[in-house]
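Reviewers of the previous submission asked for a worked example of the structure-prediction workflow described in the proposal, so we include one complete record here. The input consisted solely of the amino acid sequence. No template or homolog information was supplied to the procedure at any stage.
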Amino acid sequence: QEITVTENMIKGVSGRSMYIKEGDILTVEDLLYAMICGGYNDATHILALTICPAIYKFTEKMNEKAAELGMNGTRYSNPTGIDGAGMYTTINDISRLAKYMAQNELFVTICSTRYYKLSEKATCEFRTVTNRYSLVSEYKGLANFNTGSNNNGDCAVLFYKTNDTSLISIVMNAKSLDKKDTRNFAEIYSKK
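From that input alone, the workflow returned the following structure tokens.
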């Protein structure tokens, strides 16, 4: 499906951005790769508003799904994962979610893609999505379910699958004691 971006879809988006503009055309596949593989919040908003008439309605659906999965220690306040008022989760809930996501082959494929070139139909200036977790090219079978940071430190949720093994790695709130060191420490600990 092709989506023509409206002003409402990109209004008020903060954080990581592809700088998609009103009138740009992207496919759902383009936006899925941008959101999941690249972590672009504008792509997330566009998809959320394609599904629901308002961000809060989409967030309600997220919370309903979390409850359905038994994630009783989780509440979402936005679809992007940026720390928001009243948003919280637990390691146990993230583990439940990661197990659920690992069952979706398309999701795992997107998470393990190193580079994705936007379709020819895409009219935005941005052309290639790069996976935020560089080790996906180093380890065959590694999928980056989520890499980022919050006020408490760096986070990484990874899924690794070989012919005979599946492994989920979750590292939360990792940080350096040296404030000048800007590396993502969750990624460093995940590799170890």
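The chain has a mean pLDDT of 92. We consider this example representative of the routine output the project will generate in years two and three.
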